[in-house]
Amino acid sequence: MEEKTADEIAAIFSAAGDSVTVIDTAKTSDETDAEYKDKMKRNVEHLETIKLYKKLDETTSIWTSESFTAIDAAIVKGKAVYS
Question: Which pLDDT score, from 0 to 100, does residue 81 have?
Fold first, then answer.
């Protein structure tokens, strides 16, 4: 296995943005409360996992100058829905 490239890291960060968008979207009329809470939980877990990504040394984060402000806010908001 090789270290992630800058393009791979950018794609992962973009996927994190998708989860932020999902968390920031209101519950739809066709979702049950349980479905909505499950969706929030899945996306929060996805964001928490992404934040933990490490290089092959298993110590150094793959993240460098990325801002996690929106991600951290989405984690808090999502947890408030299902906690």
Answer: 95
